């Protein structure tokens, strides 16, 4: 079915900015010099080695982790917690849906109405809409949770490892859906499958030693020691 995506307000695309975040655990500095901006209409790919603080950063933006200092804004208005007013949605590394509620009762309030047809026609939702999350396999549930997050009503979508536990054909589908939703949303996505991140993102930010480094070309990933060589795709 063909339909029009909603247009931006008079302000144009909204911009999420993240600046000056300080996060320590047990006196160990994790994040200290972080700058990321993401506007509606773009996909930002976030890369970094294990334990560098990617999930922590997404949780800080979402509001479920409190650092010692942060500045996060939308259109230069500071926001205390991204999940307030539903501005920001977050796909955590591990499940987020309650296990004992019928999936269709969970989906309707979460999904952006302009994407309802796309979402509800997806085979995994067609198959399991009358079931509860507890009745799905780990991979099936991950697929559904990822779709529900990407298609959610929020203006900004944070995706933590959406490609990691799904089959390659699903990854290809998710990348297409991310690109489609990014026409009207701002999306920040992190995954260790960096070649998929390079493929789907408009710009790349690398976290190394607690700081963000803009990546102008994939070769910069080698220069910063993130990969030793680039994978052929
Ligand atoms: N609740 C916590 N208490 C203490 N240390 C923590 C806590 N949560 C995370 N850390 C530490 O903070 C660092 C960053 O963790 P985080 O999960 O953000 O990294 P990541 O980049 O997402 O890693 P990965 O790619 O392995 O998922 C790690 O060294 C981790 O051990």
From TrEMBL:
InterPro entries: AAA+_ATPase, ABC_transporter-like_ATP-bd, Metal_Ion_Import_ABC, P-loop_NTPase. The keyword Electron transport does not apply. It comes from the Bacteria. Keywords: ATP-binding, Nucleotide-binding, Transport. SUPFAM superfamilies: P-loop containing nucleoside triphosphate hydrolases. Residues 16-233 form the ABC transporter domain. GO terms for molecular function: ATP binding; ATP hydrolysis activity. It holds the Pfam family ABC_tran. Belongs to the ABC transporter superfamily. This is ATP-binding cassette domain-containing protein. It comes from Mucilaginibacter celer. The lineage of its organism: Bacteria, Pseudomonadati, Bacteroidota, Sphingobacteriia, Sphingobacteriales.
């Amino acid at each position: 079915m063909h339909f029009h995506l909603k247009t931006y307000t008079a302000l144009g695309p909204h911009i999420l900015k993240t600046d000056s975040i300080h996060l320590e655990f047990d006196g160990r500095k994790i994040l200290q010099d972080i700058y990321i901006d993401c506007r509606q209409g773009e996909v930002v790919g976030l890369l970094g080695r294990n334990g560098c603080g990617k999930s922590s950063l997404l949780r800080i933006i979402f509001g479920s982790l409190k650092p010692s200092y942060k500045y996060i804004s939308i259109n230069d208005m500071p926001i205390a917690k991204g999940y307030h007013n539903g501005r920001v949605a977050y796909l955590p590394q591990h499940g987020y849906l309650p296990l004992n509620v019928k999936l269709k009762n969970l989906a309707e309030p979460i999904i952006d109405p302009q994407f309802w047809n796309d979402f509800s026609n997806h085979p995994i939702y067609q198959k399991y809409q009358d079931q509860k999350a507890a009745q799905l396999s780990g991979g099936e549930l991950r697929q559904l949770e990822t779709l529900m997050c990407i298609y959610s009503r929020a203006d900004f979508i944070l995706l933590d490892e959406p490609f990691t536990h799904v089959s390659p054909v699903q990854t290809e589908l998710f990348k297409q859906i991310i690109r489609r939703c990014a026409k009207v949303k701002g999306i920040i996505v992190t995954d260790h499958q960096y070649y998929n991140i390079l493929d789907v993102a408009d710009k790349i930010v690398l976290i190394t030693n607690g700081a963000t480094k803009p990546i102008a070309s994939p070769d910069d990933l080698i220069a910063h020691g993130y990969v030793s060589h680039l994978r052929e795709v």
